[in-house]
Amino acid sequence: MTPREMRAWIAGKLDPIETYDPAKRIIHSDFDLNPTEGPTQAQTERALSPAAVLVPLVEHEAGVTVLLTRRADTLRNHTGQVAFPGGRCDPGELPWETALREAQEEIGLDPAHVTIAGLSSAYQTGSGFDITPVVAFVRPGFALRPSPAEVADVFETPFAFLMDPNNHERRFMEQAAGMRRYFYAMSYEDRLIWGATAGMLRALYERLYGPVAA
Q: What is the DSSP annotation of 30-73?
């Protein structure tokens, strides 16, 4: 598949921004692997905060990679975790506007290097966010300026590795009363991608290739 063909194939599997309708989205969540747990009553009654992330696919000659960050150790939430650039939507802001703005603020990614491909499946977190992943192609040659207040590190992981279901581990954390909370994780070299970020990557895989048989 040529780079142009790959671009067209990926874009064709996503929701175009031109027809964006938040009421007509495929939705995944932290509870996909924990159907018996489900959100608490407080979580159900609380309005989710709209947020967006940029899923940056960097088009190198040797192959496509995904640009990821490690959150700063000084942040209050999700300290040190691997994440996409992104954050809360400002009032009246569309998801792709949020994703581009946050990527520029967090890692200094110039929007001039970015071409939006479309929107992947929404992802809702137990912590109260309704996240829209904005998939985009990134032209190499960019210079990054990570914000030390938000980002400890920026790195790239091969897209092919992240889109291989053999690398999608199901792990769990022990909770109260012996309950287990399951989540996806992807280990690449010395990096561990897990939680919502891995869940969004798994959802993107299913958009592109279809669900994996249980």
A: TTTT-TTT---HHHHHSPPEEEEEEEEEEEETTEEEEEEEEE-T
Show the tokens assigned to 70: 């490690």
Is 3-209 assigned to CATH 3.40.50.300? no
Q: Is the pLDDT of residue 27 over 70?
A: yes
Quick: pLDDT tens for 173-204. 877 666 788 899 999 999 999 999 999 999 99
Q: In this structure, are residues 180 and 173 in contact, taking their beta carbons and an 8 Å threshold?
A: yes
Six-digit token pair at 210? Answer: 């279809």
The DSSP symbol for 15 reads B
pLDDT tens digits, 96-140: 999 999 999 999 999 999 999 999 999 999 888 999 999 999 999
* Annotated domain spans of the chain: 3-209
Q: Is 102 exposed, middle or buried (0-12, 13-18, 19+ CB in 10 A)?
A: buried
Cα 95 to Cα 29, 38, 67, 190, distances in angstroms:
18, 26, 18, 31
CA nearest neighbour of 199 among 27, 8, 78 = 27
Query: pTM higher than 0.85 for the full model?
Result: yes
